[in-house]
Write a structure and sequence with these properties.
The strands form four sheets. The chain has an eleven-stranded antiparallel beta sheet with strand order 7-6-5-4-3-2-12-11-10-9-8, covered by helices on one side. About 35% of the residues are buried. About 10% of the residues lie in helices and about 50% in strands. The protein folds into two domains: about 200 residues, outer membrane lipoprotein receptor (LolB), chain A (Clam), CATH 2.50.20; about 120 residues, no CATH class. By secondary structure, the protein is mostly beta strands. The two termini are about 40 Å apart. The radius of gyration is 21 Å and the shape is elongated.
Length: about 325
Amino acid sequence: MRRIYFVLVLAVAPFAVAAGWKKAYFGATKPGTWARYVDHSSDPANPDMTVTLTRLGDDEGRPQIEMKMDSGGKYPLALTRYTMKSGFDADRDLLDYGQSIVAGAGGDADTQTAFDANTVKLIAENMPAYGLAVTFKGSEVVDGKKADRYSYSIKRPGPSIESGDYWLSDAVPFGVVRNTFTITEGEKTTKFERKLVASGAGAVPVSTAAAPAKEAVFTLKEAYDEGLIRIDAEVDETVKNGEKVHLHITAKEEAPSPMTVTIPKGKTSLHVDIPLDDFIIDSPSAKPLTLNTEKGVDVDVKQAGEQRALKGKFQITTYEGQPLWTGSATVGPVK
């Protein structure tokens, strides 16, 4: 747990020195602005993360930022705050703020514990400096935003190399529109992707897809297809042919909160593509579930279909209309 969290802290910190940048990409990141990202890893052990970065008010001229990491219930919500030294040039250097940290604290939304001097020093020494390693590749339109693309390769703490691309825009807070990279550790290579899903100024909304209360009612398929929920499934191996599956359903951070999700009576088919194609459940009666972004709901269902998950665990969700599957379940035909 500690190792995964530390890697994510380094990997999701999107900030850089002026040396390799063509312009000041972070000038839109004024106090009170924020950006929200979805991080995805090719390693099934790493759940998808929703990361919200906020620039807080300055502390006597010292810039402050906050990073909130939500794993959708896999791990406790993590919130970290950093204070940079006085005179730190946030407009140009925000992507490599690590070496300028003078104070910090970590915990959750309710409790923050200040880092001691040694911890602050360790964090500062281990945060990468992308701006010194980037090469400008050109301008592109990414997710509807004009952005400049930079490639880079840097040595990370320990025997690992990070290589990837940043797409930056000076029109959005925190500058990063997309970041794709790989981390190579010996013979293991893991791919990561970070995508901007929302940004703004002022109070950070609990939901970036705020809907009227009357619209916060969905069937399971509607909520899944619209990318509002994650479903963690565990096959009960004591029941033949994977007929019984335990589901833990959580609302994603961009979902309305609270919302009602109903598993209808009869069969519901959720498209997951490879390796299962469709995850089909069969409920003897309608099951209304109340979800919010703080707590998930557990329910047992019957799995139907000729092709099923026969044992193991997996997670499914939808992002930008595309199904995402992670896990180690065994899939096969019913015998």
